[in-house]
Amino acid sequence: MKSISSCSRVGHSVITKAIGYMSDDFENDYENITDNYKAKEGSLNERVTYMKALGFANQEMAKFPGLKHQDVFFQMIDLDKGQYGQPYMVSLFLHNQSRDERTVHITMVTNSIFYNGQKAHQIKIGEGLFVLQPYERETLTMTVPPEEYMPKTVEYCHFVNRFLVKIKETDQVWTGEDTFILDKPKLDLRVIPDTPRVMRMAKVSVRFANPLDVDLTRCTFTMEAPGVKVTAPKSKFRNVKAREKIEFDFEIIPTRAGQTTLVVTFNANELYNVSGSKKIIVIA
């Protein structure tokens, strides 16, 4: 076996012996696995990594193209929070501060992410090429409707918008990232009586309003609470119409005195993990 290396092109390629393929010519008997270890050259992820790395090398930044002539200003329009079931916007403000035209190539991507920041699903991508006139200001917006993001939403409803912008005339490169959460509605819980007694029946009334413009199907309510016996801890419920307000009752029997917390969760095919909680004091 012959080993070949080149120190002049770091990260150019990572190869390994191809599985199930034998060749007398070692130059053809390999599989290129570079993309498994680093983002593809020129891709959005590669540019984001590149710019983040430069941010930690202050004295070296001026040596790289696009960092001397940054005459186009960029500003993300942060979302922070939105409402689940409503459209959200991916928006970027640009200002050409030069007396010359600037040709802009932009890529906007929105993804769902897990709570630890790892990518879950790509929801939508938009690309465009246009010219900014001298001193012109422009706001670019990509709308993401609920029917596009709902099937790709993961637990806790975290999302991230990423931007990559390249200026043709100056080689200026800009990247940005904005994480945000879409809030789901909360269940409203009411206990009757307010102060239940040990081994006495009580009622928990749950109120919920469907925030979506579609019907909810295969609906269920689930309840749990320490020190409380729930007559039917998981109950099926009829379909809920778009924007409909509903009410559902649980019957409970506290088994011990003291403080406890009731937790109710609503799930449907179109909307899941909608929850509500209420602390109660049980008396003997």
TrEMBL record:
<comment type="similarity">
    <text>Belongs to the transglutaminase superfamily. Transglutaminase family.</text>
</comment>
<dbReference type="InterPro" id="IPR036238">
    <property type="entry name" value="Transglutaminase_C_sf"/>
</dbReference>
<feature type="domain" description="Transglutaminase C-terminal">
    <location>
        <begin position="192"/>
        <end position="282"/>
    </location>
</feature>
<dbReference type="InterPro" id="IPR050779">
    <property type="entry name" value="Transglutaminase"/>
</dbReference>
<dbReference type="GO" id="GO:0003810">
    <property type="term" value="F:protein-glutamine gamma-glutamyltransferase activity"/>
</dbReference>
<dbReference type="Pfam" id="PF00927">
    <property type="entry name" value="Transglut_C"/>
</dbReference>
<dbReference type="InterPro" id="IPR013783">
    <property type="entry name" value="Ig-like_fold"/>
</dbReference>
<dbReference type="InterPro" id="IPR036985">
    <property type="entry name" value="Transglutaminase-like_sf"/>
</dbReference>
<feature type="domain" description="Transglutaminase C-terminal">
    <location>
        <begin position="80"/>
        <end position="173"/>
    </location>
</feature>
<protein>
    <submittedName>
        <fullName>Transglutaminase</fullName>
    </submittedName>
</protein>
<dbReference type="InterPro" id="IPR008958">
    <property type="entry name" value="Transglutaminase_C"/>
</dbReference>
